Amino acid sequence: MSTPARRRLMRDFKRLQEDPPAGVSGAPTDNNIMIWNAVIFGPHDTPFEDGTFKLTIEFTEEYPNKPPTVRFVSKMFHPNVYADGGICLDILQNRWSPTYDVSAILTSIQSLLSDPNPNSPANSMAAQLYKENRREYEKRVKACVEQSWMD
Amino acid sequence: MEDSLNFEDIPIVWPKNLPQLKNIDDRLHCPICYNYMINPVISTACSHNFCSRCIRNNISLKNSCPICFIDMSDGMLRPNRCLEEIIKCFQPVKSYILKSLVDKIPITGDEHLDENHPIETTKDNILPCSSSASGSLLDGEGPPKKSSDLLVPSFEYQLPQAADKLDLDKSTPATDTQQSPMASCSQSRKSTSRASVHQQSQNTTHIIKEVPCPVCNTYMREKLINVHLDSCLEKTKPAKRKPMPKMIYNLMKDQELRKKLRELGLNASGDKTTLINRHKKFTILYNSECDATDPRPVEELKAIFEQEEAESRRLANELRCAPAKVKTNDVRKIEEENLQYLRNNKESYDRLINEIRQRPTLAVPSLRLPAEPIPVQVKSEPLKEEHNSEDE
Predict the structure, then answer these.
(1) In chain A, which among 7-66 make CB contacts under 8 A with chain B?
(2) In the Enzyme Commission scheme, what number(s) does this protein have (chain A) (predicted)?
(3) What residues of B are in contact with residue A88 (Cβ under 8 Å)?
(4) What does the alpha-carbon distance between residue B380 and residue A121 come to, in Å, rounded to a whole number?
(5) Do B307 and A1 touch (CB under 8 A)?
């Protein structure tokens, strides 16, 4: 017997495979459907371009009524990403809706890379550089991009 | 992976030139669980539709519509019978429509699909153009009913009988002006019934005669049948099941909660949180069943509920056995763990990267709604304290 959360995740996986959004991909880990690995390619025309950023997504049995925990495993330098890889994004917290699926989550994170919000920083150094010293910010991001190839 | 996917109602690729068909199919799926809606309900606040159980579950956590975020409570949900009927009709013919489209066989209307034996929806029987003759479409799927059977709506079998019997026990033949609705109903079906003939033969005999009740088949005196029939029909008509009221759990003592659960015939053991959760979840299941046209017996719901609870207990135990992760704020430690994780999952990540690279390069982002980036709005206050020591 399966549970609603697990059935829904199988459906998410199916949708992601049938209609994959550009530049993102994800799949359940081999032994646990409640933990997924995902990859987001850095969006074009941003300092994150060409990066292959790795993430984990952890679901609970309350999915989709409660959002999963999404975390970058690759090192990130972004105003809205915590040092532990945690992401400060409204749709993963108080603006979560059970109508979202893994595709929606990954595309939202991808668009967060292009449009950071420096006004609610999770990484104040990144936020400050983003606002005041864009060249230094881009340099730091580029370092992350290069490191992401090595992971 | 232990969970096997049930392909039965997973949207299969609809022809691209008929996006409306996919759209119709999508509308019949619940936006929360992505299955065909079960007991669909419509919100009177915003007209969005969901499975009754899905939306009730969600409302128990958050009082807003999952689609438009408008305020919403479970009192605003009404069964959407029309949608329910459409889903019921569409599901069994869906694969047939698809097959017809793929096979380019015109739908002639000669074939009657047996609702009880829907054609299996698997990719295999959709894609190959196995048969050219339309008649062989249903081969091996169980014989279709005779068309004559299907053309006669089933209620025809019941109503005239009951109406005839009503007429039988009228001591005086009813005149056209004084007919009860039931009698007039049988009048309109005179051609199919022989009520009037029976009436006359009945009226000529004044011997006390026993007649069977058309509902329960008990024999009784003619005089009594009308009274009996009223109560008998009332008995067989299922009363609309009332939803269970909401409890204010915070104001309840453990003892009261246990009593409530025992009254429902549910397990009354566990701590307060367990008791509250159990009562809350059962209320959701019970109330969503109240939205069904034909609610299942409460005993069946209890069995389902207990099975679900046992399953989640089993999964929770499994989790407990897994080594608990130690949360740390030490950035160096986190980085180490991350590197370790990346090493252990290298194969999995490489597969994902290759998968993206192998996609057609000109792939335009799909226009499917849920996959669209949701307007991003970063929380105004950070949830955790900042860690930026590593940036120095």
Answers:
(1) 7-12, 14-15, 18-31, 33, 37-39, 41, 52, 54, 56, 61, 64-66
(2) 2.3.2.23
(3) 378-379, 382-383
(4) 9
(5) yes
Residue from the list B365, B377, B390 with its beta carbon closest to the beta carbon of A90: B377
Cβ-based contacts under 8 A for chains A and B: 198
One pLDDT digit (tens) per residue for chain A, 151 residues: 589 999 999 999 999 998 899 999 999 998 889 999 999 999 999 999 999 999 999 999 999 999 999 999 999 999 999 989 999 999 999 999 999 999 999 999 999 999 999 888 899 999 999 999 999 999 999 999 999 998 7
- The residues of chain B scoring below 70 in pLDDT are 1-12, 104-207, 236-238, 322-326, 361-392
Give per-residue pLDDT as tens, B156-174: 444 444 444 444 444 444 4
| Structure tokens given for A111 | 């668009």
Look at residue B251 and give its three-state secondary structure.
helix
**Residue numbers of A annotated as active site:** 88
CATH code, domain carrying A12: 3.10.110.10
Residue A133's domain comprises 4-149
Centroid of chain to Cα B228: 36
Tell which residue, A63, A49, A78, A98, has the closest CA to residue B315: A63
For residue B50, the cross-strand partners are: B41
- Pair of tokens at residue A61: 């049995």
Number of domains present in the structure of chain A: 1
- Tokens representing B361 are 């390069």
ipTM associated with this complex? 0.90
The candidate with the shortest Cα–Cα distance to B280, out of B266, B290, B292, B291, is B266
